[in-house]
Amino acid sequence: MNKLHWNTLILDGSLPDELILDQNDTSYRLVFASLPQSLRNKIRE
């Protein structure tokens, strides 16, 4: 796997929950946008 665009978050309580959730949402949106349209449509159903 290409780890060029990976971020590592240490979940030891030092990061605000909002930052963790924002990073997760951003990652999901980027991956979702890269999927073929037909697969995005299936996931939305």
Tell me briefly what this model is.
With 45 residues, the protein is mainly α. It is 58% helix and 0% strand. It is elongated.
Describe the structure.
- The protein has 45 residues and is mainly α.
- It contains two helices and no strands.
- The protein has helices spanning 17-34, 37-44.
- The longest helix is centred in the middle third of the chain and has 18 residues, at 17-34.
- The chain is elongated, with a radius of gyration of 14 Å.
- It starts with 16 loop residues before the first helix and ends with a helix.
- The relative contact order is 0.11.
- The model has no long low-confidence stretch (mean pLDDT 92).
Helix-strand string: HH
**Average pLDDT taken over every residue:** 92
Helical stretch tally:
2
> Care to count the β-strands?
0
Question: Uncertain regions: pLDDT < 50 for 5+ in a row?
Answer: none
Instruction: State the major sheet.
Output: none
Helix content: 55-70%
The 3D shape can be described as elongated
**Kindly, what is the distance between the CA atoms of the first and last residues, rounded to a whole number of angstroms?**
29 Å
Please report which band the strand proportion falls in: under 5%, 5-15%, 15-25%, 25-35%, 35-45% or over 45%.
Answer: under 5%
